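Hey,
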Amino acid sequence: MSVFDSLIHRLGADEVIAPGPAMQPYLREQRGLFADRSVVAVLRPVDTAGAARAVAACAELGLTVVPQGGNTGLCGGAAGRGEADTVVLSLERLNRIRDIQADDFSITVEAGCTLAAVQAAAASVDRLFPLSYAAEAECQIGGNLATNAGGMNVLRYGNARDLTLGLEVVLADGRVWDGLRSLRKDNSGYDLRDLFIGAEGTLGLITAATLKLFPPVRERATAIVGLATAEAAVALFGHLRTESGDTVTSCELMGRRPLEYTLRYATDCHDPLPAPHPWYLLVELTSSAADAQLPRRLEAALAASHGAGSDYRIARGPDEAADFWRLRNSIPGAQKGAGASIKNDISVPTVAMPAFLTEASTAVEAACPGVRVCAFGHLGDGNVHFNLTRPEAMNDEDFLPQWGALTRVVNDRVAAYRGSFAAEHGVGQLKPDEVGRLKDPVEQDLMRALKQALDPDNRLNPGKLVPPGGG
């Protein structure tokens, strides 16, 4: 009996997709860097017991398992590596809201629920699930947790890890760990939950999670501010946090170049201020109180910013706020119009951001004359997307082979500030070499020890996250 026939025999024909047209959506990868056509089968269990059977069957048959959620990741973490003994295990059919407790401010959901579905379920009981980013209609909560997703509201509510109370996980041998609890306090042992969040499916497959909910937003105020320097942006951010009663939920930094890309290549985007500025800060305040008077607070704080934020515009309503956010959210797509880009998702301490931007820009411009730095992102939590657009005089085919060399230049500056070269998009199969190059050797040994303990046969998402030389 072939391996494929064995999978059908053990799991049922409804849960197994053969190579062919039906498999193609599971083989696509967002950046087109890691598409893999050698996958034996795609497995689609309908519940946790089915996922456990699938993993156990793969262990018995000597197959490696690549877990996949919404397949929106940018580092190849949910793509195969071209090996003939690989299956993709899609969690898309584990998509139930298992429980929601408004008074407990908690919700239990399966891994295949889209982020938008979790948000909607919370809203149905007048609660907020605050994780939010551009792919929320397609991405799935299991993938969000496996990569410890960030997004626009990290400053106020934290990353996916901070929003998680408990997990259900299928282990490499097919056993299920039931850690679904809504407890806020539990010091009865190791915090196993945190082992699996951000582990990219290399230690176990998250099949369900209990998540935190919050009171809904009743009032918000949004503004865009033009600034001369990144130093002024950092200073204004601190000023706004203090003067607004710490109600800042989002604080997004945009350079003039990425803003110009949106004006040129995106639709329905307009220059937000009368005169251009080198830098822009998009800031949003929110409150669960309906009478927080946030627009007045924001106006007063900007007026008292001693000239740093003298050129600003406060949204007069939801439509104008949406216009501001469209500028920010359109940058990644608009950058494509300017040519090929090399993307870096980094974080450094917020106070170090101006110096990093200056030094990293100088370094990449020296390494590749004419390269166009496109920096934007979440200033409030120190995470920016330090993207590099090809020089205007260079074609895409000559620029993209410099990906590794230019990324190392950027990451060396990140390391100098004790930052991270994988802030919110994960490591996947794009960055394990940088883990091996830049992470402390003791930390690498600990990662390998965990991998060996939980997945001794290296069957779960091999070649991802853990640096070369390990499991």
